[in-house]
C-alpha cells in the first residue's frame, strides 16, 4: 500500500509539473509579443536624431506633397511663406497620434497656431479616413507616402512636430505627442518669440 501511495503521489506530482509546463508554453507567445511591442514603441519614440545638426536652426527642405483627399489642395513649402507655423507628422497607424489629436483640434479651434499636417508613410486613403474619424485640424496637409520629406527632416517616428519661422527655417523639433504641459512649457513660448522676431524685422 505504501508503495502504491508513493507511486500515486509521484504521478500527481508529474501531472502538476506537466500542467505548469503547458501553462508556461501557452504564456510564452504572449510574453514574446509584449516584448516585441515594447521594442517597437521605443523605436517610435526614439528621441536621438541621426544627425545632431537636424535639431539646429536650418532651412526647411523644399517639398510639394500631393493631397490627402482627392479634390483638395496638397501641401508645399511655399504655403508656409512669411508665417510662423507648426508642421505635424502623423499617420493612421500611429497610436500616439490618437492621443495627441484632441489637443491639435484645440489648437486649431482656438487659433493658437497655424497648423499643417504631413501624413507620413501611410497607405492610400488611410490618412483621409483617419481624419474623417478623428477630425481635421490642419490648414493644409499632404501625403509623404514614400517618406522622402520625413527623411530630409530627420523624422524618427510619429508624431513629431516642427516649428517653422517666417524665413522658412526649422527652429525646433518636438518628438512625441503634444500635450498641454509641453505646449505651455515649450511650443507656445517659442511661437510667441518667433512672432515677435518677425514683427521686429518688419
Largest sheet: 6 strands, mixed
Number of helices: 5
Q: Termini separation (Å)?
A: 103 Å
Please provide the count of β strands: 8
Order of helices and strands: HEEEEHEHEHEEH
Structural write-up:
The structure is a single chain. The chain is an alpha/beta fold and 202 residues long. It folds into 2 domains: 44 residues; 150 residues, 3-Layer(aba) Sandwich (Glutaredoxin).
Write the layout of secondary structure elements.
Layout lengths: L1 H43 L13 E2 L4 E2 L9 E2 L8 E6 L4 H15 L4 E7 L5 H9 L6 E4 L3 H6 L6 E5 L4 E7 L4 H22 L1
Parallel strand pairs: 4-5, 5-6
Antiparallel strand pairs: 1-8, 2-3, 4-7, 7-8
Descriptive keywords:
alpha/beta; Glutaredoxin; 5 helices; 2 domains; six-stranded mixed sheet; 202 residues; 17% strand; 47% helix
Write a brief caption for the model.
The chain folds into 2 domains: 44 residues; 150 residues, Glutaredoxin (3-Layer(aba) Sandwich), CATH 3.40.30. It is built from 5 helices and 8 strands.
Amino acid at each position: 500500500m505504501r508503495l502504491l501511495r508513493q507511486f500515486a503521489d509521484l504521478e500527481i506530482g508529474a501531472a502538476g509539473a506537466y500542467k505548469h509546463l503547458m501553462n508556461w508554453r501557452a504564456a510564452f507567445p504572449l510574453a514574446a509579443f509584449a516584448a516585441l511591442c515594447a521594442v517597437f514603441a521605443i523605436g517610435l519614440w526614439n528621441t536621438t536624431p541621426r544627425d545632431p545638426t537636424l535639431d539646429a536652426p536650418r532651412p526647411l527642405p523644399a517639398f510639394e506633397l500631393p493631397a490627402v483627399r482627392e479634390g483638395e489642395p496638397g501641401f508645399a513649402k511655399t504655403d508656409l511663406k512669411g508665417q510662423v507655423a507648426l508642421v505635424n507628422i502623423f499617420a493612421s497607424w500611429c497610436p500616439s497620434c490618437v492621443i495627441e489629436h484632441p489637443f491639435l483640434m484645440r489648437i486649431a479651434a482656438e487659433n493658437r497656431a497655424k497648423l499643417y499636417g504631413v501624413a507620413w508613410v501611410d497607405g492610400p486613403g488611410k490618412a483621409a479616413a483617419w481624419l474623417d474619424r478623428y477630425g481635421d485640424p490642419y490648414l493644409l496637409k499632404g501625403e509623404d507616402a514614400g517618406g522622402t520629406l520625413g527623411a530630409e527632416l530627420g523624422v524618427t517616428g510619429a508624431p513629431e512636430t516642427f516649428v517653422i519661422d517666417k524665413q522658412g527655417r526649422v527652429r525646433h523639433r518636438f518628438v512625441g505627442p503634444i500635450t498641454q504641459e509641453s505646449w505651455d512649457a515649450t511650443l507656445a513660448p517659442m511661437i510667441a518669440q518667433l512672432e515677435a522676431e518677425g514683427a521686429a524685422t518688419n
